[in-house]
Amino acid sequence: MGTVEGRLWGDLRISGLHVAMPGIAVDAERFDLEWQPLAIFRGRVSVSELAIDGLRIRDDRPETPGPPGFTWPRMSSAIPPLPIWFRSLQLRNARYDRPGQQPVRIDSFQGDLLFSLGTILVRDLSLRMPGFQASGSLLAGFQRPALRADLQVIAWKPVSGVDRIEITTDLAGTEAPAQLDGSIETTLFSGTARIVRLQAGLAVTNSSLRLRSAVLSRPGRRGRVTGQAELVFGAESPVFQGDLALAGIDLSREVPFLNDLNGSISISGNQQEYEGSFVLEQKDRGWKAGRLEAGFRGTTSSLALTAINGNWFEGTLRGSARMNWKKLLTISASLRARNMNPAHIAPAWPGTINMDLDGTVRLPQNRQPRGRLSLRLLKSRIRGEALRGDAAARLDQGTIALDRMVFEGTGFHGKAEGDLARGFDFSVGLSDLSLLKPGAAGRARMEGRVRKKEGAYSGSVTLQGRRLAMNGVKAGSLDLRARIEDREGFPFSLKLSLQNGAYDLVRFDSLALDAAGSLRDHRVSAALRSSIYEIAASLAGSWQEKTWQGTILRFSGSDPEGVWKTTEPASLIISRTRFSLSPVVLTGKGGELVRLQGSGETGPLSGSFALDWRELNIARLNEWLTGLTVHGFTSGRITGKVLPDGLLEVSGNVDLSKGGISRTIRGLEVKAELRKADLALHWRGEVLEGKLSLVFAEQGRIDANLQAPLPARLPIALNRDGPLRGALSGRVREMGLLSLLFPGLVQETRGQLDLDLRIGGTWSAPSPRGTLRLGNAAAYFPAAGIHVTDILLDAGMEGSTIRIASFKARSGKGSLQGKGAVFLEGWLPARYEGSLEGERFQAMFLPQMRLQVSPKIEFEGTPKKLTAKGEVRVPELLVYGPPAEGPIEPSEDVVIVGGQKEETAARMAMEIDIRVILGDRVIVKAEGVDASLGGEVLLTIRSLQEMTGKGEIKVIKGRYGIYGVSLDITRGRLFFAGGAIGNPTLDILALKTVNEVKAGVLVSGTLQRPVVKLYSEPALPETDILAYIVLGHPLGQDQEQGALLMRAAAALLSAGQSVALQDQIKNRLGLDTIDIESGKGEVSRSLVTIGKYLSRRLYISYGYALFTGESLFRLRYRFGRNWELESRSGATSGVDLYYTIQFD
Q: Are 258 and 231 within 8 A, CB to CB?
C-alpha cells in the first residue's frame, strides 16, 4: 500500500493501493472515498463519492476444466437489509488482464448505485470503452434473480450505417434449468432513424442463451424475420444453432429488384466450423421473380455454397461457389443457366438462353485484384433466331481485358477484344434494327477503338446507317466519324451527316455537323436544310482553366417568310462558377428583331436574362406545326432574375396584331382571326399572375386573368393547396367548337356565347362559378339530316356543374324546350342529364324518312353515350321505300374499283327506349303501297344507324298500285317485332271489284321484300284473276292481251308465281313464245312479240310496238348443224347469216 490520507470516519484517499490473492492481483493508482458514517444510525450506508483511478486486475488463475458454466449470483437472505447508496461511483482507466486473451479496458464509468435487499440499482449510468459509450439504467436482483436494463450504446464510428443501439431487457428468475427468463428488445439507429428492431423472448441457463419467438423488423419498411436461436457453451467453444423465416422483406433500397423476399435460413456450428442451408424466393412479376436454394459450409477462413439450385427468367440456375480468405481473398464460382427467357427484361426479345459461366477473383493484400471470367453460350435462340457466342475476360492489376467476345445470329453480329491500356477494339452490325427494338427499321454498323492513358481517353468510332427509323427519328442515311488523338492537346474531329431525316414535326433534307480542333482551340459548325427552310450556325471556343469560352460566329436561316441572321458575333462563357451570354441579335424581314442576353453565377445559382423581340412574323412557325396554321406579328419583352437564395423574379409582356389561328380536327376547321392580343406575366413571391386580352376580328372579345399558386423559387413546384384566383369574361361567336366536343354527331355549329366566369378555391380543389348564355345558335345533325335553329341556352356554373336553366330550339315548323345539367371533369363535359318537351319538332329529314315529334322525355349521357326514356307523339311520319320497279342496284358483293370510299362518321352509343304514338299524318309509300297508318311502336335506338321497333301499326286507308293497276287496301297491318324500323312485316289485302267479282293481291313478307299473291272472290284461275286486275274481264284469245298480262304478272307477282302464270297464258293461246323487248333501254321502242315454231328448223315471229305502231316480221331457218339464216322485214329490212359455235 502506498500513502493513505484523510479519516476512515469521513474522507479517505489512498494512493498506490495493492491487493493480492491467490492467482489474482488488484492495483489502483488512487482510491477516493467520501461518506457519511452517521447515516448508519439512520439505517443505511451513504457514500457521497467513490472514485477509483488506474484500476488493474490481473487474473492468473488456471482455466476450470470442462464446459464453461454460468450461475447467476445469489445472495443469502441472512445478510442484514442495510442499504448502501453510492451517490457517485466513478471508475477511470480500468483494465482486466488474463494470459492468452485480449485485455478488457474501461475508459470511464460513472453512475448512481443503490444496493438494498440483495438488489443493485444503477441510475444515470455512463460507460466509455474503446469504440463505444453506453448510458442508461440497470437493475440486478441477487436474492430474487432479476435483470432489467434500459441502455443506449453509441458507436464512435458507425458500423454499416449503425451509430446507436438501444437495449431493453426484462428478465426474472424462473424454474430450472433456466436461471433468468423474460424479454429483450434491441433497436438499431442511423442518426435519428430507426433501421432495425429485434423483439424476442430470452432464457438464460447455466450453459446456454436461448432466443425464442424472435421478430426482426425494420420500422417504415415491409417484411420481417422470425425464428429462434440458441448459443450453448461447450467444452471447447460455444455452439450455436438457429432457424429463421423471411416474410415479405423489402430490400429495394439496397438491391433495387428485391422488394418481396421470402424464405428460410438454418445454421448450426461453432467458431471454427458451421453449416446450413437457405431457401430464398422473390415474389413478383416478370424478371424480378425467382427462387434460389443452396447449402453452405464454412470455417474461420472459408465459405462454400453447394448444390445451388435456382429458378429465374423461367429457367434454372445450377452450380457452386466458394470463398477463401486464409492467405488472400479468393472467390470462385461455376454456374449453369438453362432455358432462360430474356423477354422478362426486354419484352421485345423473347427466346431461350443456355449458358455456362465460370470465374475466379483473387484479392491479394495491398495489390490490385486479379481474376478470370469465361462465358459460353450453348444452343440458344432470340426472337426465333439462333444465337451463338462466347466471351473470355481477365482482370489484371485492376484492368479488365477481353481476350475474346463474339456474339452473332441472324441479322446481327458483335465482336470485341483488348483492354483500355493497349487498346479496346469493337464492332457491331445490324441488318435490321427491329432486332434491337420492335418498330425500328433500317440497318446500321458501328466499329471503333478506345484507349485510356494516364486518365485520358483517345480513339475513334465510325457509325453508318441506312433507312433508319427509331423513337420518332427517321433518316435515309446516317454517317458519323469521330476521333480523339493521343497527343498533346488531344486534337479531335467529328463529322455527322444525316440525309432525308425527320423528327416529330421537323422534316429536313440534310443535317450536317462538323467539329474539329483541340480543347484549347476548336470550331463547330452545323447546317439544317430542306426544300422550304435552312438553318446554319457556327461557333469557336476554347477550354482553359475549367472554363469554356466561345463565340457564336454566325446564326442564320431562311424560310418562306424571308431570311434572318445575327448582326454580329456574340460571346458565350460557361464555367463551374459563372456563365454569360452577350447580346445575340437576330434580324429578319420587315423590321423583325430578336435579342437575347444573360449572365449569372452557378454556386449558388443566380443571374439575370432578358429576351426582346419586335414585329416577329409567327407564320414562320407553320413549317413546324401539323394541323395548325397561325399568322400575325408579335412583339414583346421578358426579363428575369435568379436570386442567390433560389428566388425568381420574372415579368413580361407579349402582344400580337393582325393574327389568327386555324386548325382542322376530324375534317372540321375551326379558325379565329385576332385583331389584337395582349398577355402580361408577373412571377414573384408565391404567385404567378397573368392577364390576357383577345380581340377577335369577327368572333368577339375575351378577357381573362389568373393568379396561380406557383412559388417563384427553385426548384419549381406547384403549391396545390395554395389559393387560386381567376376570371374569364367575354362575348364570342361560336363557329365549330361543339363539333370538336361531339364529333360525328353535330356539324356546322354557330352561335353567340356570353361568358362571365370566376374561379376560386385551390389548385387541387378549384371552385368555378359564373353564368353562360348561348343565343342565336344553330347546328346541323348529319345523321338525322336536320338543321336546328334559334337555339337559346341560359346556364349557370357552380363548381364542376353547369346548370341549364332554360333551353329552346326550333327544327322545321316545330320547337323544343328543356332544362338540364352538365357535369365537368378536367374542364370537359363528362356527363349530362335533362328533360325535353316539344311540339312538332322536325327530328329527321332523310330521303327514306321524315319525322316530326312532340316529345316528353328525360335523358342522360356522356360524350360517348346517350340514354333516354319517355314518350313521343308523332304528328307526321313519312317513310319512303324503293319504287315498284326502278334501276337495278348492284349486289352487295359488287366492288367498284376506283370508287370513292364513303367516310364513316364517328358513331355515338345510344340506349333510347321511346314509345312512339302515331298521329293523323303517318304515311308509308313503298313497293306500290300508299297508305295512311295509325297505332304505336316502342322505338329502340342504339345508334342513329341502328333503330328497331316493337308494336303494331294499322292501315287506316290506302291503295296498292303498280304499272297502272290500282287496288284498294281493304285490310292492312304492319307488325314491328324488334327488327329494323324501316322494314316491318306486312299483312295487306288489296282488291279491285268488277261487277260481282273481287280480284286482287295478298301482300305479305317485309316492307323491303314483299311477297305478292293473287286473290279473288269467287275463286278463279290465276290467269282470269290477273285479267280482271289488268283488263277488267276474263282472258280471251287475243294474243296482244296475253303479252300485256305476262308483263303485268312479271311486275305484279313474286318471281316464282310470275313464271308459272306466264306458262299458263302461252299454253292457253297456243304460242311458243310471248315476250316484250325493249329497244336499247327505251320504253317508247318496246315491242310485244309472239312467235311459233312451224317445224324444228323454221321459226316465225311478229312484233308490234305499243307506243309507235311499228311492226316487225322475222323468219329464221336453220340449215346444217351450225348455220342459221334470219330475215327481218319492218321499218328497216335485212338478212343475217349466223354461224354457231357450241362449247361442250
A: no
DSSP single-letter state for residue 1008 = S
* SS3 per residue for 547-614: EEEEEEEEEEEEECCEEEEECCCEEEEEECCEEEEEEEEEECHHHCEEEEEEEEEECCEEEEEEEEEE
Strands 547-559 and 985-994: unpaired
Alpha-carbon distance of 858 to 867, in angstroms, equals: 9
In which element (H, E) is residue 24 found? strand 24-36
Residue 205 and residue 180: Cα distance in Å, rounded?
A: 7
Q: What is the pLDDT of residues 322-335, one digit of tens each?
A: 999 887 889 999 99
- Evaluate if residue 497 carries a pLDDT over 80: yes
- Rounded alpha-carbon distances, angstroms, from residue 916 to 250, 866, 951: 65, 18, 10
Distances (CA, A) of 367 to 288, 364, 397, 477: 36, 5, 8, 50
Work out the number of other CB atoms within 10 angstroms of the CB of residue 122. 21
The answer to whether 27 and 18 are in contact (CB under 8 A) is yes
pLDDT tens-place string over residues 288-308? 788 999 999 999 889 999 999
Nearest partner of 663 among 704, 618, 622, judged by Cα:
622
Per-residue pLDDT of 614-626, as tens digits, reads 999 998 888 777 6
Please name which of 228, 172, 167 lies closest in space to residue 200, comparing C-alpha atoms.
Answer: 228
Query: Rounded to two decimals, what is the model's pTM?
Result: 0.55
Q: CB under 8 Å to 91, separation ≥6 — which residues?
A: 51, 52, 55, 106, 108, 109, 110
- Whole-angstrom distance, CA of residue 835 vs CA of residue 1051: 49
Which sequence spans correspond to the domains of the chain?
A: 1-64+74-141, 604-664+678-719, 1073-1144
Dist CA 799 CA 5 (whole Å): 90
Entry field: residues in the chain:
1144
1022-1030 and 1039-1052 helices cross at what angle (nearest 10)? 90
Element (H, E) at 1022: helix 1022-1030
